[in-house]
C-alpha cells in the first residue's frame, strides 16, 4: 500500500481486503474541523465510515468497531477522528 495515496484510498483498500463489503462510503470530514483540535493541516484528519459487510451484523457493536480498527491497523494512528456507522 502506497504511503503516497490519499488517506481515503488507503482506508478503502484495507477495508475491502478485510471484509466482504456490500456497501462502503469513506467520507473525508476534515474540512468541517479546520482550525479545531486535531486538525493537522493535511486535510486528512477526520473521516466517517459507512460500512455494510457480510458478517458484521452478527457481531456486537464493540466487536464491529474492533474489527474495523484491526483492519485499518497503523492507519488509525494517522487519523485524528474516525466516526463509524457499521452494519
**Distance from first to last alpha carbon:** 26 Å
CATH level-3 fold name: GMP Synthetase, Chain A, domain 3
Number of strand elements: 3
**In the CATH classification, which architecture applies?**
2-Layer Sandwich
Could you characterize what this model shows?
By secondary structure, the protein is an alpha+beta fold. It has one domain: 2-Layer Sandwich (GMP Synthetase, Chain A, domain 3), CATH 3.30.300. Helix content is 28%, strand content 25%. It is built from two helices and three strands; from the N terminus they run H-E-E-H-E. The chain has helices spanning 7-18, 61-72; strands spanning 21-28, 46-53, 81-86. It has a three-stranded mixed beta sheet with strand order 1-2-3, covered by helices on one side. The longest helix is centred in the first third of the chain and has 12 residues, at 7-18. It is globular. The termini are far apart. The mean pLDDT is 88.
Sum this structure up briefly.
The chain is of the alpha+beta class. The chain has two helices and three strands; from the N terminus they run αββαβ.
Walk me through the topology.
Blueprint (H helix, E strand, L loop, with lengths): L6 H12 L2 E8 L17 E8 L7 H12 L8 E6 L1
Parallel strand pairs: 2-3
Antiparallel strand pairs: 1-2
Give structural attributes.
single chain, alpha+beta, 3-stranded mixed sheet, 87 residues, GMP Synthetase, Chain A, domain 3, 2 helices
Amino acid at each position: 500500500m502506497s504511503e503516497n495515496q490519499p488517506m481515503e484510498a488507503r482506508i478503502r483498500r484495507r477495508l475491502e481486503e478485510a471484509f466482504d463489503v456490500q456497501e462502503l462510503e469513506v467520507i473525508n470530514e476534515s474540512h468541517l474541523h479546520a482550525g479545531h483540535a486535531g486538525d493537522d493541516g493535511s486535510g486528512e484528519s477526520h473521516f466517517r465510515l459507512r460500512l455494510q459487510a457480510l458478517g458484521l451484523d452478527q457481531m456486537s457493536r464493540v466487536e464491529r468497531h474492533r474489527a474495523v480498527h484491526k483492519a485499518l491497523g497503523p492507519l488509525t494512528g494517522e487519523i485524528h477522528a474516525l466516526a463509524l456507522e457499521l452494519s
